[in-house]
Design goal:
Chain B: Its cofactor is thiamine diphosphate. The complex is a heterodimer of chains A (about 375) and B (about 425). Chain A has about 375 residues and is an alpha/beta fold. In chain A, about 40% of the residues lie in helices and about 15% in strands. The longest helix of chain A has 15 residues. Classes of the chains: A alpha/beta (about 375), B alpha/beta (about 425).
Chain lengths: ~375, ~425
């Protein structure tokens, strides 16, 4: 996916001056973690990274794909924290998408292990492990399989509320749930869904989705070290397709901070994950017709960076949101509502949402269902000409 | 007529049964009964096992051979179609496990229900589905059993009592318990067979379902098709106790050689009687899949090739039937080969026919989400997208949503893949 390479690379040094500790407390989340339970190590890592940054500034990594970037991040996470664990269905063999290749050999079967096919058990187990101050990195094989863990007890009722209902005595901040999400071209009903909006309705967890290998590595490390439970959705379409240079060392990217990856003046486009490459193509096409698009990668969906989107919409006066999940009740609806609240007088056109259709994810109809480049381009034009 | 004796772990077929008697062949009538001994005795938990002697007839034996050969051939053909990219999506093949589908069908009626997970092609055939429906569904065509909207994992046949292929591991078992409750409530003398794999056996919802079934004495039979690998994980890596027939604790269980269609038949007959009288039962079918878990799994990284070929040589369900047919002098080896040739042709014809079937019409994307006129209309959304549009996509979708009659008149069918 060559278009991803065109994304402006994140500004490494400047990001790290405002790494997750400061930025998250600004939003009132995860204020200083008490008494050295899981999580308090944010600052420590930030410092290490700044030092590393100085040492290694200018160094570039190898060109790798997204699953290798995830793999690197997991290696670093396990290497840098002896209390980090990776577990899930088939992970000790490398996982179905090869994200966990080599981990079991290097870190041993005590720290990288297979679980039975029992998603509710996997997440519940992870919460307990994290509650004892460990970093539990759980893999759900497909985001489509996360629902047993979701509905019964674990993510929504156990993980998200643990800190709150125990008056901060307990938490499972060390828990990170990784799950591949989204379309792959022919995945059908149970291997293509994008369930992020369900989790965005749950205060207490964070939801993060990367768009490319370098982002995936930095964000995953931030998620693993974040003192809150995080659901990290990986765009499986990009596992092999997205290839770019990824720094080899340990680095983190701040959560809850959106990034303007393409500047423009006529309309703001907001998206995340694999959809950004589709949106970028639409931006390029629109540019040819004289429409200047600003493209924002939200990166963290919960809690999300309203300020960046607001600033952009105040500048452009128009907003388009695109995601693969069905339009009704999708996270685009939340963005739309918030921005209308904040920028009502600045808006020159209704907020456009180009998303999946309100049908189950189809098998043969996937090309119809998807929010394709043409649909986005069409909406850009109609919004600009409103 | 106790022909078959077992000893080793791999339970080899008796060599005595392998000899053929071409000259002694006699015409058979369906009233003839043959008694076959199951490969190994049943192992029971909290119940008395059924007898090893199974009654059958020449006609049934021959039909087992033909049906099993059809299933085997269908799965091999599906494998090639997938590799040729004519089947997309996820595809899980059943070859190796055919005896379970065949034996179960022989013991029950179409009023009994079967519900399973995604490895559903052969169970569908067993319930009376046709090859054309199966291949059409696999290739996402209109003639498919789910109108091309389901694909490999979602085969259904309502009139055959086949409640389908379900996508989420273990999720179909609680549904099966619901089916059984309905059967009991309406005082039918029918039962539900809820199938799941050894991987799914560790899912929590299975135990919730089992408890309800036992609590209310439902005519439900939980069938664990133990093919020994949950995806790439061997059963002993995932289960503290791989004795799945004992997992029900208070629910009786029976371990069955799932490579022996007659053992399966006997067990299912026993289970049905038991379930109608006493409530649920677990059947563990000791079986094997030759292919990998799905098409992306070569199936050879977590088990040895010797293991696979060993099972093929010594436990293959089709070969077992072939040897029984030959030992009972019901057909010659050549006749059986001819049957296999016929089957091959039937499969090829079905594929050709399925390829002729068109893709579903684009408006089908929006049908069956809700009952017509009782749900959300999609057209509003499409209109929103299409406000200022000159796009091919929108013209086509709008055309499509205008309904089938007008659309069918158009000669050039719209293929979703060509729309962009």
């Amino acid at each position: 996916m060559t278009s991803l390479r065109r994304f402006p690379r994140f500004d490494f040094a400047s990001k790290f001056t405002t790494t997750s500790c400061t930025s998250s407390s600004r939003r009132g989340f995860s204020t200083t973690t008490s008494s050295g339970s899981s999580g308090g190590s944010c600052t420590e890592y930030a410092l290490t990274l700044q030092q590393q940054q100085q040492l290694e500034s200018g160094s570039t990594g190898k060109s790798i794909n997204l699953f290798s970037a995830i793999n690197q991040a997991l290696h670093i996470a396990l290497d840098s924290d002896p209390r980090a664990y990776v577990f899930g269905e088939d992970v000790s063999f490398g996982g179905v998408f090869r994200c966990t290749t080599g981990l079991a050999d290097r870190f041993g079967k005590q720290r990288v292990f297979n679980t039975p096919l029992c998603e509710q058990g996997i997440v519940g187990f992870g919460i307990g492990l994290a509650a004892m101050g460990n970093r539990a990195i759980a893999e759900i094989q497909f985001a489509d399989y996360i629902y047993p863990a979701f509905d019964q007890a674990c993510i929504v009722n156990e993980a998200a509320k643990f800190r709150y209902r125990s008056g901060n005595q307990f938490n499972c901040g060390g828990l990170t749930i990784r799950a591949p999400y989204g379309a792959v071209g022919h995945g059908g009903h149970y291997h293509s869904q994008s369930p992020e909006a369900f989790f965005c309705h749950v205060p207490g967890i964070k939801v993060v989705i990367p768009r490319c290998p370098s982002q995936a590595k930095g964000l995953l490390l931030s998620c693993i070290r974040d003192p809150n439970p995080v659901v990290f959705f990986e765009p499986k379409w990009l596992y092999r397709l997205a290839v770019e240079e990824v720094p080899e060392h340990d680095y983190m990217l701040p959560l809850s901070e959106a990034e303007v990856i393409r500047e423009g003046s006529d309309i703001t486009l907001v998206g995340w994950g694999a959809q950004l490459s589709v949106m970028e193509q639409a931006c390029v096409e629109a540019e040819k017709e004289g429409i200047s698009c600003e493209l924002i990668d939200l990166k963290t969906l919960l809690p999300w960076d309203k300020e960046t989107v607001e600033a952009s919409v105040c500048k452009t006066g128009r907003l388009l949101i695109s995601h693969e999940a069905p339009v009704t009740g999708g996270f685009g609806a939340e963005i739309s509502a918030s921005i209308v609240e904040r920028c009502f007088l600045r808006l020159e056109a209704p907020v456009a949402r180009i998303c999946g259709l309100d049908t189950p994810f189809p098998l043969v109809f996937e090309p119809f269902y998807m929010p394709t480049k043409n649909k986005i381009l069409d909406a850009i034009k109609s919004t600009v000409n409103y | 007529m106790a022909l078959i004796h077992r000893s080793s772990i791999l339970k080899p077929l008796s060599t005595a049964a392998a000899a053929s008697f071409p000259s002694l062949r006699r015409p058979f009538s369906s009233s003839d009964t043959i008694t076959v001994e199951t490969s190994i005795p049943f192992t029971a938990h909290n119940c008395d096992p059924p007898s090893r002697s199974v009654e059958t007839s020449p006609a049934e034996l021959m039909s087992f051979f033909r049906d099993m050969a059809t299933m085997r051939r269908m799965e091999i053909a599906a494998d090639s179609l997938y590799k040729a990219k004519l089947i997309r999506g996820f595809c899980h093949l059943y070859d190796g496990q055919e005896a379970v589908a065949i034996g179960m069908e022989a013991a029950i009626t179409r009023k009994d229900c079967i519900i399973t997970a995604y490895r559903d092609h052969c169970l569908f055939l067993g319930r009376g589905g046709t090859l054309v429906e199966a291949f059409s569904e696999l290739m996402g065509r209109q003639a498919g059993c789910s109108k091309g909207k389901g694909g490999s994992m979602h085969f259904y046949k309502k009139e055959g009592g086949f409640y389908g292929g379900h996508g989420i591991v273990g999720a179909q078992v609680p549904l099966g318990i619901g089916l059984a409750f309905a059967q009991k409530y309406s005082k039918e003398d029918h039962v539900t067979f809820a199938l799941y794999g050894d991987g799914a056996a560790n899912q929590g919802q299975l135990f919730e379902a089992l408890n309800m079934a036992a609590l209310w004495d439902l005519p439900a039979i939980l069938v664990c098709e133990n093919n020994h690998y949950g995806m790439g994980t061997a059963e002993w890596r995932a289960a503290k106790s791989p004795a799945y027939y004992k997992r029900g604790d208070y629910v009786p269980g029976l371990k069955v050689d799932g490579m022996d269609a007659f053992a399966v038949k006997q067990a299912c007959k026993f289970a049905k009687e038991h379930a109608l009288k006493n409530g649920p039962l677990i059947l563990e079918m000791d079986t094997y899949r030759y292919h990998g878990h799905s098409m992306s799994d070569p199936g050879s990284t977590y088990r040895t090739r010797d293991e696979i070929s060993g099972v093929r040589q010594e436990r293959d369900p089709l070969e077992r039937i072939r040897k029984l047919v030959l030992s009972h002098d019901l057909a010659t080896e050549k006749e059986l080969k001819d049957i296999e040739k016929e089957v091959r042709k039937e499969v090829d014809d079905a594929i050709a026919q399925a390829k002729e079937s068109p893709m579903p019409e684009p408006f089908e994307l929006f049908t069956n989400v809700y009952v017509k006129d009782f749900g959300v209309e999609m057209i509003w959304h499409l209109e929103q997208i299409g406000k200022n549009s000159e796009l091919c996509f929108l013209e086509k979708i709008q055309l499509a949503t205008s309904g089938p009659t007008r659309h069918q008149k158009k000669k050039n069918r719209i293929s979703p893949n060509k729309c962009f």
